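Notes for week 9. Today we move from apo structures to complexes. The key idea is that a small molecule is not decoration. When we ask for a structure prediction with adenosine-5'-triphosphate present, the ligand SMILES becomes part of the input, just like the chain. The input block below holds both the sequence and the ligand string. Read it once before you look at the output, and try to guess where the molecule might sit.
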Amino acid sequence: MAPLVSLAGERLGWGDSAVLSDVSLEIDPGERIALLGRSGVGKSTLLTALGQRIAGARVALVPQDHGLVDALSVFHNTWMGRLDAAGTARNLRILLRPSATERAEVETVLEQVGLAGLGRRRVGQLSGGQRQRVALARALLRGGAVVLGDEPVSALDPAQAAELLGALAGTFQTSVLALHDLDLALDTATRIIGLKAGGVVLDAPVAECDRARLMELYA
Ligand SMILES: Nc1ncnc2c1ncn2[C@@H]1O[C@H](COP(=O)(O)OP(=O)(O)OP(=O)(O)O)[C@@H](O)[C@H]1O
């Protein structure tokens, strides 16, 4: 089985400045990877690099800042996940007058994230947790083989977080999710990648990880 993406001794960063050095890893279809490490260590940098390098698979993103347009409705922000599936004319028509089918498709994912009935609400009027759930709904509507998420459930309570990670697992075969909740990582991932001091210092199946080992990433 060919890996989805393969990095070999790569230096990752922004412009001339390296954030991570000598990064070597392969990600296979079906893996559920939790990406861990202290704030600023380079989790977003690695996720960005993976998003740029995964070829031949449809990828959905849940960015840390949610990437929403406040002035638009929940429906429109959710539909953005599908913008690439239609031409400009159809997208403009959907922006102005979505069909019953398109509304129903969006409502299905809004129900999955607990936002049923809020399609007409402006995103600017939502709470932080609701905004994060719109970003998750957009990824679910987009669908595909892979989801890359940057703290995708950080604004949710533990039960909601577990439920929505389950929804992602039900839609996407492969996931790479930066998480800060170690228990959630241990409960939901198949593999843990830990970053520290400019590199990957842990890359192991979840069965070989426990809380103490993960805590070393934050020491
Ligand atoms: N878009 C960007 N342009 C330039 N530099 C960036 C960009 N994103 C992150 N950086 C820099 O890369 C370094 C690593 O940041 P990154 O966001 O990857 O860490 P992180 O582990 O995701 O942090 P956090 O947990 O706080 O989100 C930081 O020094 C940051 O300033």
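The beta strands are 5-14, 17-27, 32-36, 59-62, 146-150, 174-178, 191-196, 199-205.
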